[in-house]
Specification:
By secondary structure, the chain is mainly α. Helix content is about 60%, strand content about 0%.
Length: about 90
């Protein structure tokens, strides 16, 4: 019998949790520091971290440049959180 693709057993990690727990805290970067490095307002980063702002292509590119990831990483994470993961 063919393998059946199933939804993950747990919800996708939110962009805000990923930013805070996997990047900012371990790297010792504040939200204000990230905003400055990205060239955006502190409010923009605060809204990303609280999941009140979606990741756009522009935002994904800035996050990737500053945090050493790829834009696709952030866009795919947003897509998973939007419920369009597959």
């Amino acid at each position: 019998m063919a393998n059946v693709l199933r939804a993950p057993a747990h919800p996708a990690t939110s962009v805000g949790v990923m930013l805070e727990e996997e990047f900012l805290e371990p790297l010792g970067i504040t939200q204000d520091g990230l905003a400055k490095a990205m060239g955006v307002t502190s409010e923009t980063v605060k809204e990303l971290c609280s999941n009140r702002r979606r990741v756009t292509v522009e935002t994904a590119t800035l996050l990737a440049e500053v945090l050493g990831t790829t834009p696709a990483f952030w866009l795919n994470l947003q897509r998973l959180n939007d419920g369009h993961g597959g």
